[in-house]
Amino acid sequence: MLKAVILIGGPQKGTRFRPLSFEVPKPLFPVAGVPMVQHHIEACTKVPNMKEILLIGFYQPNEALSRFLISAQQEFKIPIRYLQEYAALGTGGGIYHFRDQILSGNPEAFFVLNADVCSAFPLNEMLSFHRQRSDPDSFIMLGTTVANRKQSLNYGCIVANSDTHEVLHYVEKPSTFVSELINCGIYLFTPAIFHHIGAVFQRNQQELLLGACIGEESTNGWQRAEAIRLEQDVFTSLAGQGRLFAYKTEGFWSQIKSAGSAIYANRLYLSCYSQCHPERLAQNRPGGPTIRGNVYIHPTASVDASAVLGPNVSIGKGVMIGAGVRVRESIILHGASLQDHTCVLNSIVGWESTIGRWARVEGTPSDPNPNDPYAKIDSETLFREGRLTPSITILGCNVTIPAEVVILNSIVLPHKELSRSFKNQIIL
Prior knowledge:
- The protein is an alpha/beta fold and about 425 residues long.
- The chain contains 10 helices and 34 strands.
- Strands 5-4-1-6-11-8-12 form a 7-stranded mixed sheet, sandwiched between helices. A 7-stranded parallel sheet has the order 14-17-20-23-26-31-33, with no helix packed on it.
- Helix 3 (about 90-95) packs across helix 9 (about 230-240).
- The chain is globular.
- The termini are far apart.
């Protein structure tokens, strides 16, 4: 039997995702019409003999998370549980802390997926690759290629043997070029991984005890000993030992760190719906709006027949779209209202927000080079030289935009009623 663990992080993470992460935990933010983490869960349920999916993070259990878990269990007919950490324990500390729950039922192996990535999730291919290894206790990490040396510095870099695929060297976010093969944050482990994580835990404990002996100040030492990072603490020492192997994917993969990358992930997931979920894509029908490219419209949304939507648009629950509205490369969240003749491009419109007639809300795409299949989206900093980096426009929840104004490359925090046009600003 197999299990899967999805690492969902916690509220102090996702700061680059604000103001959207104010309203829902980042893993529940809808991308291509469904919560971000649902894409992970669905991929896991397609692996034969998958018995349980565990979400690990340090969000307080809240109504939105509980509701999501109940509906996901009903939809996918598989046990899904949330295990809450007492503090941020890192990518390795969380699974080590809950190792008894992961190992109950004696799974032969388990997947670990970071929630803040979007991917075609080639989990079955990783499993086949693992079963071809002569060592049943080998570990697999998913890798992909980046477009250039500069981009590789933002990721964990893998140096692998081109014949055996063994990971010979691993460096997390190196300061100089190491390799164009990067870590995708998706792994397949056997229970033997806990021996290696346990060794890091013991080492951390000894260092803390030593620090205490020589009088160094320490916060809660046990908590710090249990904070373990798979990337820096485990993979770097496993590399070159014949236990860690890289499976390289040619499928799509991207991080979802910023709100701009959510627009890009929205596009990637919508494009794969034509194969895996054609029923989720809107079609051109007599008396309906004009659909260009891939568009998701929630069944409860009301869209005027004269509206033009797409490509790469997701329309949420209860959204109202008036006459002559144009939407492209955008996510419109539930309860939003786009009044007649508004234009929304490269933007995220928050929950229950209203855009007045003839207003224009537009951002600048931060897409990777479309001509390079290995290009990855750059995690731009919010400011460059004291100025807001032009990027997608984000309206938080309950934002009101008046008629006939232009909002360009701006971030508007929740519950704002604007009175005029803005460009390249964060509106607090």
